[in-house]
Amino acid sequence: MNTSAVLDILLQGLIAAAKLSAPVLVTALVVGLAISLVQSITQLQEATLSFVPKAVAVAVALVVCGHWMISEMVSFTNDLFARLPSLLGSA
After folding, report:
1. What is the pLDDT of residues 12-29, one digit of tens each?
2. Is residue 37 predicted with pLDDT exceeding 80?
3. 50, 29 contact by CB (below 8 A)
4. Predicted confidence band at 90 (pLDDT cuts at 50, 70, 90)?
5. Which stretches are transmembrane (predicted)?
6. Which of 3, 37, 62, 88 has the most CB atoms around it within 10 Å of its CB?
7. φ/ψ of residue 39, rounded to 5
8. Which of 59, 78, 88 is nearest to 12 (CA)?
């Protein structure tokens, strides 16, 4: 296994991690921004007002995107297993 193969696997892993975390992070960001805006307008500074809607929105995002996330991880893992013989030098 050479350095370029390791860097390629690392790059693919980082891209996969970014793709898989994006729906959850973007959802939390948008809901957090909306709740923060509402709190600023109404001057209600309660911590649970931002936490509970964010938690619910993230749970909904996981339910909606969960199948896609699992299929992406299975595809990534299958690609790694398919590359294993060439990485070990036996192909």
Report:
1. 999 999 999 999 999 999
2. yes
3. no
4. low
5. 20-39, 51-70
6. 62
7. -65, -35
8. 78
